[in-house]
Amino acid sequence: MGGLPFQDATSALALPENGSKHNQVSSVTAPAPESKPKKKICCACPETKKLRDECIVEHGEDACSKWIEAHIKCLRAEGFNV
C-alpha cells in the first residue's frame, strides 16, 4: 500500500520537559459550564406560551406584557438565556 512513510511513534508523542512552560498548571480556570436546557425552546413552557400567544392574537402585543414576562421567566427557569 502506498502512503506516508512510517515514523517512530515516540518522537511524535514526545512530552515537554519538566521545566517547560507547557507543563505548568495555569492559574486561570475555565468558567463553570452553564446548565444546558433539557428541551428545545419551542417545547419549553407550553402553558405560558399558549397564554402568551392567545393574548397577542386577541389583544395585540402591547396588552400582553404580563403573559410575555411570565413566559420569559419560565424559559429562564428552564435554563434558556432570553
Automatic annotation (TrEMBL):
Keywords: Chaperone, Copper, Disulfide bond, Metal-binding, Mitochondrion
Residues where Cu cation binds: C42, C43
Predominant cellular place of this UniProt entry's protein: mitochondrion
GO cellular component terms, semicolon-separated: mitochondrial intermembrane space
Pfam families: COX17 (PF05051)
Chain residue ranges for the region called Disordered: 1-39
GO MF term set: copper chaperone activity; copper ion binding
UniProt KW Chaperone keyword: yes
Subcellular location: Mitochondrion intermembrane space
PANTHER family assigned to the protein according to its UniProt record, in alphabetical order: CYTOCHROME C OXIDASE COPPER CHAPERONE
Record-stated family: Belongs to the COX17 family.
Name assigned to this protein: Cytochrome c oxidase copper chaperone 2
Gene source species: Punica granatum (Pomegranate)
